[in-house]
Amino acid sequence: MRAFFQRHAVLHIWLLCALLTAAAFHLSKGNRMLMNALAEHVTGPVKETLGALCAAVPFSVAEVSLFAAAGILLLYLGALVGDLIRCPRRGSLLYTRFLGLVCVGATVYSLFCLLWGVNYYTDGFQERSGLRVKEVSIEELQATTVYFAQKLNETSASVKRDEAGVFDADRNAIYDDAVQIYRGVEQEYPFLALRDHRPKRVSFSRLMSRTNFTGFFFPFTGEANLNDDSPACLLPATIAHEMAHQRGIASEDECNFLAVLTCATSGNAVYEYSGYLMGFVHLSNALYRSDPARWETVHAELNAQVRADLADNNAYWARFESETAELSQSVYDGVLKSYGEESGIQSYGEVVDLLVAYYGPQI
Predict the structure, then answer these.
(1) Which residue in 228, 230, 235 sits closest to 278, CA to CA?
(2) How many angstroms separate the CA atoms of 295 and 289, rounded?
């Protein structure tokens, strides 16, 4: 038995280090000062460096890494089956290979906690900006929704459209322009300042659509990754959302709010329209749930171009309503809750409170 453990000493030490790292994170995550310092001076700079390095290549390093990891795992399991057939000491071999997998899994989890999990326990946008949500009355919600509807009508004619009147702005230009869109909001909130890089298209975007995802930030590469198959009308706003994650904002509702605000202050007509469209979708959905009659009144004011974009977006996503999409969203909901975001995926709807808090006084 002693010889057995000696042969696996390296793996045992490796696993112990990974588990201790994860345990240290969970034991100290309640220390806001420590989490803030860790995010600002350690993990933030690491992600920025990774993002700068990965920006040197035009493809998504995150996507390649995920598929490579899946391929390596399959090869590893296939080799394990072959070795088990040939090896007489199957118990020892199985323990070694299984322990190796656990070590890798524990290491990835520990690094994820440090590179991204820490952001769930730092000061968020509301704490750092001073903008605070409050209870929203139906009148305030309606007034803000009307404001966004008016902005949509004003900006809808400033973007290129196809023969059916649907948003048809050049996608390459959208990706190219992304590096400049945060300059306006950074003047208002300097703590958001960051050197931006061109976001990445995901080659298997249709697969993302099937799992109901429009984009994701990958902390191991520092990249903002986008579903390039989904309707282009919300692509600019989605890019701004993922770039908010690059700035260490973990909360989904805060990232959605920043996406809207960033697009609205970008000085770029395509991004402005997309941002107002994203904001309107959240606001009008909330208004519909609260008072369908008021929603109908506001919705009737939208011009034909805005209606065409909303219909095109709804028709696209209706094709992917499936158990797979529901399962993927349930898993993601569990991940959010595991890091303290109690409302889980429903936090995407809480952006309404921030929009009303910010735009309400201006109306």
Answers:
(1) 235
(2) 9
Query: Cα–Cα distance between 358 and 275 in angstroms, integer?
Result: 14
How many other β-carbons are positioned within 10 Å of the β-carbon of residue 119?
Answer: 22
**Tens digit of each residue's pLDDT (9 = 90 or more) over 138-164:** 999 999 999 999 999 999 999 999 999
238 with 215: CB under 8 angstroms? Answer: yes
Hey, how many other C-beta atoms are within 10 angstroms of the C-beta on 110?
A: 20
- pLDDT given for residue 331 in this prediction: 39
**Tokens (6 digits) for 169:** 């702005």
In SS3 terms, the chain reads as: CHHHHHHCHHHHHHHHHHHHHHHHHHHHCCCHHHHHHHHHHHHHHHHHHHHHHHCCCCCCHHHHHHHHHHHHHHHHHHHHHHHHHHCCCHHHHHHHHHHHHHHHHHHHHHHHHHHCHHHHHCCCHHHHHCCCCCCCCHHHHHHHHHHHHHHHHHHHHHCCECCCCCECCCHHHHHHHHHHCCHHHHHHCHHHCCCCCCCEEECCHHHHHHCCCCEEEECCCCEEEEECCCCHHHHHHHHHHHHHHHCCCCCHHHHHHHHHHHHHCCCCHHHHHHHHHHHHHHHHHHHHHHCHHHHHHHHCCCCHHHHHHHHHHHHHHHCCCCHHHHHHHHHHHHHHHHCCCCCHHHHHHHHHHHHHHHHHHHC
Question: Rounded distance, CA 286 to CA 352, Å?
Answer: 7
- CA–CA distances in Å: residue 102 to residues 4, 19, 73, 80: 18, 10, 12, 15
Nearest alpha carbon to residue 277 among 186, 166, 125: 166
Residue 34 neighbours by CB distance under 10 Å: 14
Counting Cβ atoms within 10 Å, is residue 102 exposed (0-12), middle (13-18) or buried (19+)? middle
User: Alpha-carbon torsion 204, 207, 211, 213, what sign?
Assistant: positive
- Alpha-carbon gap, residue 278 to 309, rounded angstroms: 11
Nearest to 5 by CA among 85, 16, 108: 16
Residues of the chain with pLDDT under 50: 323-324, 327-332, 334-339, 344-348
